[in-house]
Design goal:
The chain is of the alpha/beta class. Helix content is 48%, strand content 14%. The chain has eleven helices and nine strands. The strands form two sheets. A six-stranded parallel sheet has the order 3-2-1-4-5-6, with helices on both faces. The protein has a three-stranded mixed sheet with strand order 7-8-9. Strand 8, helix 6 and strand 9 form a beta-alpha-beta unit. It is globular.
């Protein structure tokens, strides 16, 4: 390919590892780093170079892609990477960081002469592995050709939301979209838990809504994970869903909007995590409907 780049992927969890593999498949030179090295090492078999530290990973890279837990984690890692960063390096920040954190990340980018793109993605493990994520991106038009090959490798489509990554327009859209996804996920769990409590066969519910406006593939997919006990490996983990739900609530509060369902959803995810389901698929919020099991 003519647009071969050297791309550094910092953070190789569920999403970052899949994105790194697709970047390798697209013909890019890929360096990876993860705080827990054991999560990065399998990528060596796919053709990625596993770096010993963030600074080594980013040295000489055309594009740095961060896919870390949250904004503070992304800032910490980039500060550690700073000795290896060169002015003019493109930074595609794909962590769901929250509105306030994006401003802090953009300030770091400005301080170090980086070209900053706010670029969160929509999708979970399966679309990430297939290179079918939806990339939400904001950044300078004159530099988009430098990052487009990366977005094309990890996603099926890129939606541009603005020219200034520091304004956080892509992150704002991501939070709005996630508010719907997380509410729907919690609704699935409550439907199944209520059916269990009332002695209703869930298939009766699915038959009742089949083919109508209340039916949706996402409902059936998440319900299937719960009913089949197929919550690992996670498509998107409970603990991460709880973090995103808190960011959504905080964004609403900061802008004078009360988000009662999002707040309750955050507590529900937190309760499921406390019961030991934090690393399972976010559909495991289902278990938050029941008292935590104890042993005598």
């Amino acid at each position: 390919m003519t647009d071969q780049l050297t791309v550094s992927v910092l953070g190789t969890g569920i999403m970052g590892a899949a994105m790194a593999r697709n970047l390798v498949r697209a013909g890019h030179t890929v360096r990876v780093w993860n705080r827990s090295r054991d999560k990065a090492e399998p990528l060596a078999a796919d053709g990625a170079y596993v770096a010993g530290g963030p600074d080594e990973a980013v040295r000489g890279a055309d594009v740095v892609l961060t896919m870390l837990y949250d904004g503070p984690a992304a800032l910490d890692v980039m500060q550690r990477a700073a000795p290896g960063l060169g002015p003019g390096t493109v930074w595609a920040q794909s962590t769901t960081a929250g509105v306030d954190a994006v401003a802090d990340l953009a300030a770091f980018a400005h301080e170090h002469g980086l070209v900053f793109f706010d670029a969160p993605v929509l999708g979970t493990r399966q679309p990430a592995e297939a290179g079918q994520l939806l990339v939400l991106a904001a950044g300078p038009g004159e530099a988009r050709d430098r990052v487009t090959p990366v977005f094309d490798a990890v996603g099926s489509r890129t939606v541009w939301t603005g020219e200034d990554g520091a304004a956080g327009s892509a992150t704002r859209l991501k939070l709005v979209a996630n508010s719907w996804v997380l509410a729907a996920t919690n609704a699935v769990g409550e439907v199944l838990s209520l059916a269990k409590a009332l002695g209703v066969d869930p298939d009766g519910f699915f038959d009742a809504i089949a083919g109508g406006p209340l039916d949706m593939g996402y409902l059936r997919a998440k319900a299937g994970l719960i009913r089949d006990g197929a919550l690992t490996p996670a498509q998107f983990a409970v603990a991460t869903a709880e973090k995103d739900a808190r960011l959504i609530v905080e964004a609403g509060e900061a802008n004078g909007v009360r988000l009662d369902l999002a707040a309750a959803g955050a507590r529900r995810f937190a309760r499921a995590a406390a019961q030991g389901h934090g690393d399972e698929d976010m559909a495991a919020a289902y278990f938050a409907s029941f008292e935590e099991k104890t042993t005598d």
